[in-house]
Design brief:
- The protein is α+β, with helices and mostly antiparallel strands and 392 residues long.
- It is 50% helix and 14% strand.
- It has three domains: 125 residues, Orthogonal Bundle (Butyryl-Coa Dehydrogenase, subunit A, domain 1), CATH 1.10.540.10; 108 residues, Butyryl-CoA Dehydrogenase, subunit A, domain 2; 146 residues, Butyryl-CoA Dehydrogenase, subunit A, domain 3 (Up-down Bundle).
- Strands 1, 2, 3, 4, 5, 6, 7 and 8 form an eight-stranded mixed β-sheet that branches.
- A hairpin with a 6-residue loop joins strand 4 and strand 5.
């Protein structure tokens, strides 16, 4: 039942993106434990994703990609498959997908730049991510001006600042840097920066509880020179108050799909454990216990709800149905919390076995908890819903 729901509206006539992702996921899952243990970046995964044509899944067909229009449901499913195998890889991939979807749909993106990045993504390993979070600012979603400054000169911008949680930094070719100008009335927005320019350095600070292979290090910009036309979308701060509904929708569902994938990996391991574990006191597999069956059934129910939410919402987006940022936030909150609860239920049935590093369940638990960290955080979503209900 769950797998048929997850397929949503994806048609049988489309290219075999799902089969390609499933084939790659087998090797990704085998390598995931070692990358987690050593916090090493999975470069080989992205080489294989590129060879399979999956890095350009959300690049417009006009530029050689799979097509950003009706591929949202496909992208969400691919991210769920990769997230089940290696969520660190899936998170980097999701940010790349999001930015290409935004490029294709946004009127503010310079056409020359969006074409360039699209072509590079089709031709090789040329990933892009937005670098927004700073030590002082925290998440830009909660307001405040960035400390990163872009100073305009006659020949270009000079960029200085410090970004943290820069997911995928070891492999990114392009940074979309959130910064403010040094003008009398500062503007705020994104500047496109090529990785590796003089004055740019990566500080390997990422030593996290979960998603240890995501390479979410600090990136330092010290008077980095970029062209004047590297200004992508820079506005007055007040003009950023209204959310970009399309971007918020894509972000929340892609993130939700990844952590739902983690929960499914935990479920699969649990099922095998319950069938194989035969306590001497019981003389039969744990799977025969009614209490175990009930808790596993609760996990299945949560995953079924997740599948329906992700597939239907992604399908609505592809069909051009008007969606709200608030609704997408609710789905992210619901799916990620269902995923966390599913893994916690799995741990309740496995005891010390589930927390042993010899088994993958403890890694799935550490990874799935990261779902609560992504914007929008649960408290922001609930507070926004409460204010709307009260008419405030």
């Amino acid at each position: 039942m769950v797998s048929s729901i997850a397929k949503g509206r994806v048609g049988h006539s489309e290219p075999d993106y799902i089969a390609r992702a499933e084939a790659l996921a087998e090797a990704f899952a085998v390598r995931a434990a070692e990358h987690d243990r050593t916090a090493s970046f999975p470069f080989e995964n992205f080489r294989e994703l590129s060879e399979a044509g999956l890095l350009s899944l959300t690049v417009p067909a006009a530029h050689g990609g799979a097509g950003a229009g009706a591929q949202y449901a496909y992208a969400a499913r691919v991210l769920g498959i990769i997230g089940k195998a290696d969520p660190s890889t899936a998170l980097v991939l999701s940010m790349h997908y999001i930015n290409h979807l935004v490029m294709a749909r946004s009127p503010t993106w310079p056409a020359r730049l969006s074409r360039k990045l699209a072509r590079e993504s089709v031709e090789g390993i040329a990933l892009v991510n937005a670098l927004r979070v700073e030590p002082e600012l925290g998440s830009p979603a909660r307001g405040g001006l960035p400390a990163t400054i872009a100073r305009r000169t006659e020949t270009g911008w000079r960029l200085s600042g410090h970004k943290i949680y820069s997911t995928g930094s070891p492999i990114l070719k392009w940074y979309l840097v959130w910064a403010r100008t040094d003008e009398a009335e500062p503007r705020v927005g994104q500047f496109l920066v090529s990785a590796g320019l003089p004055g740019t350095r990566i500080v390997e600070t990422w030593d996290h509880h979960g998603l240890r292979a995501s390479g979410s290090h600090d990136v330092i910009f010290d008077d980095v020179v970029i062209p004047l036309d590297a200004e992508v979308d820079v506005r007055k701060p007040a003009d950023w108050r209204a959310p970009d509904v399309a971007q918020a929708t894509v972000h929340t569902i892609f993130v939700a799909a990844i952590y739902d994938g983690v929960a499914r990996a935990a479920r699969d391991w649990l099922v095998a454990f319950l069938k194989q574990r035969v306590p001497a006191s019981l003389g039969a597999p744990l799977a025969t216990l009614p209490r175990v069956q009930e808790i596993l059934g609760a996990i299945e129910a949560r995953l079924a709800v997740n599948a329906r939410l992700i597939a239907s919402f992604a399908g609505d987006f592809d069909d051009g149905i008007a969606l709200s940022a608030a609704e997408s936030n609710v789905i992210k909150l619901t799916v990620t919390n269902n995923a966390v609860a599913a893994v916690e239920d799995a741990l309740s049935l496995t005891g010390n076995h589930g927390l042993s590093r010899a088994n993958p369940l403890e890694r799935h638990y550490r990874d799935v908890l990261c779902g609560r960290v992504h914007t929008p955080q649960d408290d922001s979503t609930r507070a926004g819903l409460g204010r709307a209900a009260l008419g405030l």
